[in-house]
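Good morning,

Both structures are done.
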Amino acid sequence: MKKLSLFFIFTLCLMALGSNAQRKFSVYAVGFYNQENLFDTCHDAGKRDYDFLPNGSYRWNGLKYSHKLHNMARALADMGTDKLPGIGCAVIGLSEVENAKVLDDLTAQEPLKERGYKYVHIEGPDRRGIDCALLYNPLLFKYKSSKLLPYTSVEEKDSAFHTRGFLTVDGTIADEPVTVIVCHWPSRASASSYRERAAFLVKNIKDSILNERPETKIMVMGDMNDDPTNTSMYDVLGAKAEIKDVQDGDMYNPWYNILKKQGLGTLTYQGSWNLFDQIVMTPNMIDLKGKKDYSTLKFFANQIFRRDYLFQTEGKYKGNPKRTHAGGVWLDGYSDHLPVVVYLVKEQK
């Protein structure tokens, strides 16, 4: 009965589609959210997780960990509910999760457990111990396979540079083949060339998949540590701002104009907004010719997901995302990043 009611609610007639208003469409939400240091309280051998131990710099303990899980589960469950109340996202990419244990604990939180979320995680080489992962609702996303493709350096001097790989997950949404590539590119403590290298590697992954399986819808998502306007995203990955400019081999980036024209972002630095958290997609996911042909799964809308509880409401950091710690103080918050969501539609036959 629960499954039937879920799919009954999930079927929407999208009035926003203008002349297509009398036709019915299924809607799917896809999200990404940087978890900002989702660590448990135990040491993982070989990892530099010492700050997140009871005697570490953050005095990380069971109380703080349980609050962190509760807070993140609340936000994750709310993502996508602006258009899909009670349903939320089919898949959500995550960054900054320590291990499978924290994902077991996260998906056991009631807002996520009730919807039956599963996860994909492969332990990576990051020396601090943070990985990417993918949450998915098995009623909406049919998981097939996954692999972690490594970040490889081109310079011999960087042979010891170990960072997050690219979590590549294959499955189906609306009976169509979908690949999600979850990323957490090198931080801005490293030169821009490191993120441009990440973009080059991801483009190769994307192109290889399309050469083998051209019908696959591919979404690259993650904390890129670069804005949509930066070389890594716009030039190397080819994530274009306007649908009319998207050519074969490019991707579409619906976040470019949100930052450039609206001045909105997902994190702040020295009082200004950046938009590092992005979900970009291959040309077969967009309405290139403006014909409103949604016979196959297509992009429809996107949003930076905002809730009052995600923001600091007072003090020095007022108006910024409410993070777990700031200035050496436990804020009992969420993340230093805001979540992002895209909505996909497919016409019902």
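Second structure follows.
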Amino acid sequence: MFFLMATSVGAQTKMDPARATELRSKVKAQSGSTRTITSDFTQYKHLDFLSSDIESKGKLAFKAPDQIKWEYTVPFAYSVLFKNQKLYINDGGNKSSMDLGGSTIFMQLNRLIAASIRGDMFDEAAFDIDYYTLEGHDLVHFMPKDEQFAEFIKAFHIRFGTAGEVDMLKMIEPSGDYTQIIFSNRSQNQPLSDAIFAH
């Protein structure tokens, strides 16, 4: 196990400052022009006490500025919708909702998830940021500076494709457990019906 970890870390190399500046510019341009995103995704939930990760699949729909719907289809039907400062959950037909407006942490998390989907999280006042290349991909680590928020999320790791689009998002908890989401079949700036974000 140690050898595998060392190999994985060894393949990740620090990005030079000029390349990091170029990447930031490309991602900001991509993010600034993004109005909608649809994508398939595969999610891996890693918990240290389990021998294998929990794998789920589904579809993502995003509409600027902050409407996000995660619709899980495998292994079960389940959807999570962030809209108008509220969280809506549909668990196989059992619906519930939560007002996020009263919770600074949940509002911040919602904003960060929206920003992470677009890729534009380059706020040095809010994050310590490290830039890497990994197996031909651009990889950026974002570590929250806010101590209260860092109690929930230790780091965001975002991998970018050649056009500056997000193709992998990893949210790491302080315990070391993490959620990794790999995006595929991405479509951008296509019209999205409001019905998709109905609750």
